[in-house]
Design a protein that fits this description.
It is built from 6 helices and no strands. By secondary structure, the protein is mostly helical. The protein binds heme C (HEC).
């Protein structure tokens, strides 16, 4: 990342120098002024293209890191929630077909609710704990009947990503 920035800087410096040099030659020269001006702009244009692609490459790198870091997929999480995970038989989420249960609390606003359940605990950490050890905190007004360990591994990451994702407007 730092090397890319240094290379970028060097390229920009070289380009500015080349541009000024070709401009200078053009202005001083008696003949062919316009051709040298055009030359200068061509150099600048090619340079800008190189810079743009370098910036694109840097952006691509960062995006790749981000994608690599976020392991959960909200789409897969929703499919798991109403399918294999069985969460939808106990939990309702507005606008999600199959998520209609009433044994557990509705999870439509769980992203906000989870952040307030335990002081100092993030929403992600609280939902994670709710999966692995549901009785660590029993939501007020509900029985401690949620089975632990329904979601593990990739399913756990996906269902957390799904529960934290913004709900579409109804
Ligand atoms: C047998 C019914 C049942 C199933 C299946 C079930 N839950 Fe629960 N869940 C509950 C109940 C009851 C509670 C509230 C009591 C508690 O906190 O333990 C709860 C609590 C939660 C909470 C905390 C809610 C809050 O407001 O604090 C989350 C998050 C949650 N469940 C997610 C899930 C997910 C994800 C699945 C599927 C992998 C799932 N549950 C499957 C019954 C269920």
């Amino acid at each position: 990342m730092e090397t890319t920035v240094m290379v970028l800087g060097a390229v920009i410096l070289l380009l500015v120098a080349a541009f000024l040099a070709s401009l200078g030659l053009g202005i001083i020269g008696e003949s062919g002024i316009s051709i040298r001006w055009i030359g200068g702009f061509v150099v600048l244009g090619v340079g800008l293209a190189v810079i743009a692609s370098l910036i694109g490459a840097v952006g691509g790198e960062e995006q790749g890191v981000q994608q690599g870091g976020a392991t959960g997929s909200p789409e897969r999480g929703q499919a798991f929630f109403v399918g294999q995970g069985g969460c939808g038989t106990c939990h309702a989420i507005d606008g999600v077909p199959g998520a209609v249960g009433t044994i557990g609390p509705p999870l439509t606003d769980i992203a906000e609710v989870a952040a307030t359940r335990k002081p100092g605990m993030t929403a992600d950490a609280y939902i994670r704990e709710s999966e692995q050890n549901p009785n660590a905190f029993v939501a007020p007004g509900f029985q401690a009947v949620m089975p632990p360990g329904l979601a593990t591994g990739q399913n756990l990451e996906d269902v957390i990503a799904f529960l934290l994702a913004p709900r579409p407007e109804p």
